[in-house]
Structure formats: C-alpha cells, structure tokens
Amino acid sequence: MSSAKKPNVSVIIVPLFLITLVFFGFLYHVYLNDAAVPILPYYELTQDNCTPYSLCKENIGIPQRSGPVLEAKARRLPRALIIGFNKCGSAAWRSFLSIHPDIVSPTLELRFFTENHKLGLEWYRSQMPLSTSNQITIEKTPRYIRSVESLRRIYEFNPDVKLLVIVRNPVSRLQSEYAHEMAKLPETSNISFTDWIYRNPFEGFVTYWSDYASTIRRAFSVFPHHQFLVVSEEDLEKDPVSVVKQAEMFLKLRPAVTNDVFVFNETKGFYCFNTSHPFFPSVLENHEVDVMSGCMIETKGRDHPSLDANLLHRIVNTSLPYVRDLFRLIHKQFDWKYYNKYIQEAC
Ligand SMILES: *[C@@H]1O[C@H](CO)[C@@H](O)[C@H](O)[C@H]1NC(C)=O
Ligand SMILES: *[C@@H]1O[C@H](CO)[C@@H](O)[C@H](O)[C@H]1NC(C)=O
Ligand SMILES: *[C@@H]1O[C@H](CO)[C@@H](O)[C@H](O)[C@H]1NC(C)=O
Ligand SMILES: *[C@@H]1O[C@H](CO)[C@@H](O)[C@H](O)[C@H]1NC(C)=O
C-alpha cells in the first residue's frame, strides 16, 4: 500500500513545482523587461511587424494569441537616445523622427542620466508618452554625450540602447551658439560675431565647439561603435527623408517615411511637415511644431551673421584637424562647406 502511495504524491508535487517555477520565471521576465508592459491583453506580434530582434526581446516567451489586434498602451522606457550635440539640430531631428508611426518621443529634455538621475527610473518612465509594444521610445538630451558618468549610467540602464548623434559644420555651430546667446540678451547688449568670438580665448573656444571626435571617441569606450548612428545637420536640412531613413534602418523599423511627409517651404528655406499628410497629427504633441505651417517654431532659419573672411579662415584653420579626426573616426564624410576643399585634397 505505502509503496503505491509514493508515486501519487510526486504526480501532484512535481507538476505543481514546475508550474510555480514557470509562473515566477515569467513574472521575473516581465519585471526585468518592462514592468509597465501589461501582461494582458497581448499585442499581437509577429517577427514581421516587430522592430529588431534585440528591441523585441520583451516579446520572447510571452505567449502570442491570434485574434483582433488590441491597443495595449503604456509608458515605456527609451530604447534609443539622442545624446548629442548641443546647437546641432537635435531638436529638429527628434521632431522629424517622431513623424515615424513606430516612434514616440517626449518633447522635453529629461536630463535623466545627468542631473535628474536621483528622481529614479519610475520618474523617468512616467515622463514618457504612451506607446504600443511595437513602437519605440526615443528621448533626447544632447548633454548626455559630454558626460562619461551619464554614458556609464546609460550603459547600466541598458547596454543595448541605440545612440543617435547629430553633428554640424563647426562654423555654423558657432554661429548658432552666437545667435542663441544674443537672443537671450537685450538688444542693446548685442555684439558682433567677431567681437563675440574674440571675447573668448580663441583656440580653446573654437576647439570646444569643433572637436566632436574626442567626445565621440570617449563614448566609443563605453558603448560599441555599432550602437551609434552619427548624422549631420546639413544632411537633415537638405534631405530630411534620407536622414530619417538612415534612422529607420539603424533602428530596424519598417520603412514608413516617404518624400511626401515633408514639404520644402520657400519662405523659410527649410523643410517643414506636410500638414495634409496622414502622419502629421502625430507630431502635434511637439510644442516646437507650428500647427498651421508644419514648420519648426523655434527660431530655426533665423539669419546667421555674415562672416569676416579673415575670421572665417582662422576658424576653419583651427577646427580642420578636428573635422578630419571626426571623419576618420566615424568612417563617414559630411558635405561641409569651407572644409570640403581641404578634406577632398587629403583623400
Ligand atoms: C541684435 O541682435 C538681433 C538678433 O540677433 C538683431 O536682429 C539686431 O539687428 C542686432 N542689433 C545690433 C545693433 O546689432
Ligand atoms: C502631402 O500629403 C498629401 C496627403 O498624403 C499628398 O497628397 C500630397 O501630395 C503631399 N504633398 C507633397 C508636397 O508631397
Ligand atoms: C512657409 O512658412 C511660413 C512661416 O512659417 C508660413 O507662413 C507659410 O504658410 C509656409 N508656406 C507654405 C507654402 O506652407
Ligand atoms: C593654418 O595656419 C598655419 C599657421 O598658423 C598654416 O601653416 C597653415 O597652412 C594654415 N592652414 C590652412 C588650411 O590655412
């Protein structure tokens, strides 16, 4: 009798143990990936509409269910970050990327990996817009790239995060910084671009705004190269669709952005959103987009100061080694006026 009882007990205990194990394993898995992802209802996902494998790992092991696609919106932590650079068009890039139906992005710079780190990950998550599980969230704080401490925090947060970087012709970047500073001052305190430059120690100042390479090289010591996409503001300005397409490929999103999403505005001299395009309503949460014209509200397109020829030559001369260094580092060359003739000679 007693020998017949034993197998009966294990018949109950063993499956019970396995079920418990699987259940807690599943809970842990969900917790690890994104606590805000609702367990039910499942969003129907196939490898086809899934963003890249690495971005989709939260779906692996979650049972899939056929039936109608259900909207399961939640606030999700970013899987890609725009980490630099200041005064290089990162706001326009973020805005242009957010036209993609699979991208959501908070409008504000959250500075979480720099000064707001103490507010905690749940605060960071609470700042994110709602998204479905096949959309990715992109946060932009251009100062992240300058702080190794913040890059290390990002690595700790997610070593697989994709990093987007935008750079700009150093001369235009200086002009943009100048215009930005003058706009903050009362009219009477205006000084010319030349005076502004020479108010600072020339070499150090120009180097500060030109040396993208050292900063990117430092970031390469924290994250592998393949997790970075470096684009240029000039390309974004000339051909926003091609730059957004680079990001689509890099983030392994479906190709959705086509030429008719943007229209060139002759008055502004810039591309603006096509306000009649069906994607346009999704960018209206961006307070930097003008609802009527579809253009960036920010003082984009304000005139850059004219340049004194001698000063221009000095700036280019000082910054050229850093531009060369950048192009070598990222294995890419941008179409930057003033620099092209020197760079092409070198090749
Ligand atoms: C001061 O700066 C503003 C904006 O940059 C410009 O429109 C204005 O002409 C400048 N005034 C002088 C006196 O330079
Ligand atoms: C703007 O979008 C509408 C609707 O998709 C389209 O018919 C039109 O051709 C687009 N305009 C441009 C200039 O591409
Ligand atoms: C171009 O932009 C200006 C200023 O934002 C706007 O008033 C105008 O309507 C736009 N033109 C077109 C054709 O959209
Ligand atoms: C930059 O200046 C140095 C001397 O100051 C000169 O030797 C060099 O030829 C200049 N380069 C360019 C590109 O003008």
Describe this entry's structure for a reader.
This protein is an alpha/beta fold and 347 residues long. It folds into 2 domains: 73 residues, no CATH class; 272 residues, P-loop containing nucleotide triphosphate hydrolases (Rossmann fold), CATH 3.40.50. The protein is built from 12 helices and 9 strands. The strands form 3 sheets. A 5-stranded parallel β-sheet has the order 3-5-2-6-7. A hairpin with a 4-residue loop joins strand 8 and strand 9. The protein is globular, with a radius of gyration of 25 Å. The termini are far apart. The N terminus is likely disordered. The site of one 2-acetamido-2-deoxy-beta-D-glucopyranose has 4 residues, from helix 5.
Topology:
Layout: H1 2-33, E1 74-75, E2 80-84, H2 90-97, E3 103-104, H3 121-126, E4 130-131, E5 136-140, H4 148-157, E6 162-167, H5 170-184, H6 193-198, H7 202-210, H8 212-220, E7 228-232, H9 233-238, H10 240-250, E8 262-265, E9 270-273, H11 309-330, H12 340-346
Parallel strand pairs: 2-5, 2-6, 3-5, 6-7
Antiparallel strand pairs: 1-4, 8-9
Helix pairs in contact: 7-11, 8-11
Low-confidence stretches: 1-5, 27-67
Helix and strand succession?
A: HEEHEHEEHEHHHHEHHEEHH
Rg from alpha-carbon coordinates: 25 Å
Give me the number of helical elements.
12
Which terms summarize this structure?
9 strands; single chain; 347 residues; 5-stranded parallel beta sheet; globular; Sulfotransferase domain-containing protein; NST/OST; disulfide bond; 2 domains
